[in-house]
What does this fold into?
Amino acid sequence: MSSALIYLTLIAYFGATALWLGFFLAQRENFCRGGVWLLGLGLVFNTLVLIFLTWTVGYLPVATFGQTLLVSAWALVAAFLFLYWRFPIKVLGALTAPLAALMVSGTLLLAPGHGVVSPALKSLWLTVHIILALLGNAALTLAFLAGIFYLVQERQLKNKNFGFFYRRLPSLEQLDALNYWCLTIGFPLLTGGIITGSLYAQHTLGSFWQWDPKEILTLLAWLIYAVLLHERLTVGWRGRRAALLAICGFVVLLAAFVGANLWFSSFHNFASFLKQP
It folds into this structure.
């Protein structure tokens, strides 16, 4: 059943990708509306498969990189649909939908891990930590995408190239506002993820901080976003500077998510969640 739901999720996300790219190219509103509905349908399937897996195995399915990609796709689409309802920048779906589809594809392509799952994954407190962190990452991913669009649009304006991308991208003011909205949502969620993770570490390991590679990288990303948010609120940073910092923060978060989980030796590494019987 879980495999069928994953395939349905993938079909919906790829269908949404086709519609969003069609909207980006042809600028037809019915493509945009269809893309929103298909992303919403994919989110329903994505939610059902996560509920089914959690009910079946007794913990949030994040024991392997492939499982975590499935949860991350859910968080990204949920964050996008929420922000689209509040701040409808339509072109953002042309990047969000294919990214979610690629994440679910990774779930199907990556071989599942083998071994006995660590009891640590069966903690409700750890589940809260993971959900907060992934939702924060999702919102900050959207800030990154908005920053990319901002730099592209700014370059079009500076070069006075009012062609393909200029006519399809929102104004610089809209993209900057989207960057700010994503930051104000993602930063508190990321902060909550760090705090709950530290409290769980104190409870299980006897220390709030382990100098783990993922902890260090996540803290570095948090500091970048903290500086960005502080300067936006107090000094009034906007535009290119804010877009560049949002991109830098995302690059560090990506290094924490991929590098620390797959390559670095740490208790955040996926291998630590699967103990050989």
